[in-house]
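Recap for those who missed Tuesday's class. We walked through two folding examples back to back. For each one, the amino acid string is listed first and its predicted structure tokens come directly after. Nothing is annotated here on purpose, so try labeling regions yourself before you check the end of the notes.
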Amino acid sequence: MIYLKDVSEWLKTLDVKFDNYYFGFLDKKKEKSLGVYNLKRDNQLIFAIGGLKNTTYNVKKISLLIHYNQASDETEEKANQLFEELLKSRPDMIGGNQIFFIGMLTNEPVDVGRDDNGICEYVIEFEIYYKR
């Protein structure tokens, strides 16, 4: 099984860097942060014909929150840099699990506006297909 902490640790190895990495929640919403969350939609259980013993893969659905700064152009640029890095990323392992591929769920980062402090935010959603 892949955990949010595993995904956060893997994201730290990418070329696009953030000052703060969080999983599960953003602590005090510091600027230039990347939050890693479970994607809460369409989480159906995967079973092969023959049951769990014949099921060879699983899917971890992830939502990333880019919580950057008050400059919308800088935040958009950072979100797009991360999106491009994810597109070309081919990790062999995450959290001790063999990775088959990463599937992006949108064609670009999604602008979700500003938080209560005026910090611009974007969301990137993707799926990690891994060996069971």
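Example two. Treat it independently of the first, because the proteins are unrelated.
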Amino acid sequence: MTQRPYLLHLFTPAAQASPFDINMAYDAGYTAVIPYCNVQLSDIGNLTQDAIFSRGPKGVKCTGIFIGGREIGLAADMADAARAAMVPPFEVSVFADPSGAFTTAAAMVAAVERQLRNRHGTNLEGAEVLILGGTGPIGAAAAVLACGAGAKVRVVSSRGIDGAKKATDALNARYQVATEPADGSSPDRIASLVGSAGVILATAKAGVQVLSAAQLDTAAALLVAADVNAVPPAGIEGLGVMDDGAVLKAKSGKAVGIGALAVGNVKYQCQKGLLVSMLQAENPVFLDFRAAFTAARQLSS
């Protein structure tokens, strides 16, 4: 009997599917990746049932659903809607990773944990974490993960305290965490936040520097800083994209940095590994930022 093709249905509310996600899925071993763009939450149930009922109970083991987009809350809702639309034994695996935010955030926080553990003999429990550019999908996911690991997390927005508070209110309500908003609308305001932070995460969009060398020089308590911006200029001035524990010029004299490509290496392995796990699963798996964090921690151990 001919082997059934492995199909991944990629649902995204965006106008285009991410080429990154499509490449990753093919590299993980899927026979075909089928993108569906401009998908609304209300569409998910019908799309899911079309995907599952056409293949039979055996064929669903060769079928998966990937949820993209940019909003982590909407992606979570879409994943829940897909799962709710399934009728056993017609069930398929679902992986939500909007803009790669779940796997990137997981990789970033896991890489920070590794440096805290190996270089400083500590962890995120009780640590003060400052997330610059924190209202985007990566920053929001990282905030939830770091808070869940016991950190005191402040989400900084360049749009001021109102923008930050809108983001933290949404995160705290959805994920039952206690992130705090912070005003990053000027260099002086950012400098006032940096001094007490033990961990700084730069999660702004590509090509935007959120922390200068002068501001870094005021970081009296800093142990680890990490950046996800691989497009010049770096999100943190002086931090190289390949750095993985390189010494940073911070006031604390103890700080080390993790660059975007060092984070990206863990993110790549994490996303590919989770896609492969869907292919190999005997029973359906449902993957989100929590599964991504578990995988990233294993990769960073």
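Answers for example two:
Residues 34 and 122 are 44 Å apart (CA to CA).
The longest helix spans residues 260-280.
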